[in-house]
Design brief:
By secondary structure, the protein is mainly α. The chain contains three helices and no strands. α1 (7-24) packs antiparallel against α2 (27-53), α1 packs parallel to α3 and α2 (27-53) runs antiparallel to α3 (75-96).
Length: 98
Amino acid sequence: MKPLINLSHLIVSLSLQGLFYLVHGDLWLGAVAGLFFCLGREIAQAEYRGIEASPTKLRKDFPLLGGFFPKYWTRKALLADLAIPALLTITIAITLQP
């Protein structure tokens, strides 16, 4: 059985936030970087689900912005892989930013 929350998204988001804090001294840059990394990854995964669901299973027959179609997104993708890492890094930025 797979775990409900994929910890890799949390780890990557927190690592990016820490890296940006060390380099630039700004927690918000890291929170935004983590958010966009997870968002890009989830859009790509939605595209793969959409390609698999298409009749021809070919990338060329899939719409350009098909990864944004809500029917290819799962509840787990929205909550565990996108919202939770984003909320955690934003909470850290709000709490610890002077």
